[in-house]
Predict the 3D structure of the following.
Amino acid sequence: MRIDDRATLADLACGAAFLGSGGGGDPYYSLLLAEAAFARSGGFDLIAASDLDDDALVAPCGWIGAPTVSVEKLPNGRETVTALRRLEQLTGRKIAAVMPVEIGGGNGLAPFIAAAELGVPVVDADGMGRAFPESQMVTFNMRGLSACPSVLTAACGSLAVIETQDNLTHERVARGLSVALGGIAHMVEYPLTGAQAKRDAIQGSVTSAIAIGAAIRHARAARRDPFTALADALKATGLYPHCQTLFDGKIVDLERETKGGFSIGKVIIDGFGDGGRMEVLFQNENLVARQDGKVRAMVPDLITIMDRETADTITTERLKYGQRVKVIAAAAPAMLREPAALAVVGPAAFGLGHDFTPIERLNQGEGA
Amino acid sequence: MRIDDRATLADLACGAAFLGSGGGGDPYYSLLLAEAAFARSGGFDLIAASDLDDDALVAPCGWIGAPTVSVEKLPNGRETVTALRRLEQLTGRKIAAVMPVEIGGGNGLAPFIAAAELGVPVVDADGMGRAFPESQMVTFNMRGLSACPSVLTAACGSLAVIETQDNLTHERVARGLSVALGGIAHMVEYPLTGAQAKRDAIQGSVTSAIAIGAAIRHARAARRDPFTALADALKATGLYPHCQTLFDGKIVDLERETKGGFSIGKVIIDGFGDGGRMEVLFQNENLVARQDGKVRAMVPDLITIMDRETADTITTERLKYGQRVKVIAAAAPAMLREPAALAVVGPAAFGLGHDFTPIERLNQGEGA
């Protein structure tokens, strides 16, 4: 697929924002950078992983850090390309294609900028099917692949090559680096073969994001309900087969701090009428939504807070008192609900003290 | 010079401990590792920088982190060699010699272990002439050389290559990494040419440390006062031309915390009889000694707290309530008192709010 119009890029940004589950970085700056790359290059090539040679070198990339920092500290624009070139030096090979390490948020667009400059395609797949706060929360780790060598670059021109014995230590090291470098950095990690990209990535997530964004855009233009369009589009992707509007209300309280390289906090939403109260906890991404003490959705299922009129996604760093919002949950891709995956991205991995229950069972009988 | 007996190694550990000014890492474990390397290799070659080819590759190495951690978290013993081999890969060249990045504390012995394994000599020079808490506080930085590429290794087997645009950012990145890796890591940094080692390092500091240790050992054996022997030995080195016993008393209070990758605190010493009270502030190393409000010594001059009977150096992480101690100050090597050096390692660089005044002026008329 050739992306050769700005509307498709904007659809991708809109869909990726939803899939970010509140995180993945604000898509606004990524969209600006992608549009600039688009203006220079005239377009981007998106290919299916199945089109890759089995021994091709595929480079997943994205930003690591607190989204609260990313909206204030701008990139220098060269981070991704510098890191990819270094990966080529380290491996002695040419990169055949790039891939978002996570489709969610700004990270869904991040590889397009580098792809245009390197003249390589973007693979229609990613390692999370959404966004997660920690770098080991990726299908490649669940499938036993190594994050290393990874290359971390920052706006100040710093670069670090990281090699660790395990992926959790890699996350600790990369996180410490991102904090030392001002709270946000770019990372190329989990260098894949084409065969691994076919087997261990979540397929079709980039085109899914585009379809979600397009559905919302078309609904707005036709003055149809964008939330209905969103639910239909999610189901049509096949990746996100269930969708629920969990709550409709006004933000009445917000706690948020930037701590340990993350944006951590809690938002309280009061329902309209006698709708009760919903609490959503987040660590970069929304992790669990509880209504009057009852869990309505939890990781790895997606929980996204959206403007109740426009269906614009409100990422965790953009939450504010008084916003009128809907809380939307979507079923995570099947690969994230496998037992090996739940050990890495299930509620227990976040210390939440719940066993994972899918949204379609938690909210049985309540339609989209 | 060939170091072919264990007594000389012990002298080096003793002298380096004094020159550490309270820091540089506990020399005990470094001595054990050096003795093991000695047992395997039969000895170490120590050469003058002037013996190096101008284009030789010289690798300064040492440990970065909080000394409080280093006494509890042991190295795996391969950190230095792994990092040096990686530096050879990165530069495509063989390392001709290694050098302590700082002569003070355990770091004065660190390169000997790797030297034995690589079959290269140690250069009789270092980058600090003592120990300092931060990696940019080194003569190589004062003379405009770059710390990069540096290689950081940790006991868990992790490795990171760091490249930054400036040496202060390098320190921030390396410090963040050392914290993420458990509080202590090994670093090979400021790769030098032979010409730079001749011009920009402090010459003769390794043999000075050996001479200081030997003087204390001989004094103890002959039941002479070790502090007199220390003062004479310091003057004889030519590097440390002045020495003062600032204070003699008992530790009555101690504040110490491990924060931001450093061991930070303050020790209070009450004088015997009507000797007043001395306060010594430290950040890994002792930074300033004040007696009843009057500054008696400050960085970059050396301030070392020693057991008042044995003249054993008590590093900042070994300070305890009740210890009977002498506080000894020594003039820093001339290279550290130049204006460009004072900007990096003078009291203002530590936020101390004093202009640098040498100990020989602060304590005029008070003999050693």
The interface with chain A takes residues 156-165, 169-170, 172-173, 175-177, 179-181 of chain B (CB under 8 Å). Chain B has two domains: 2-205, 240-353.
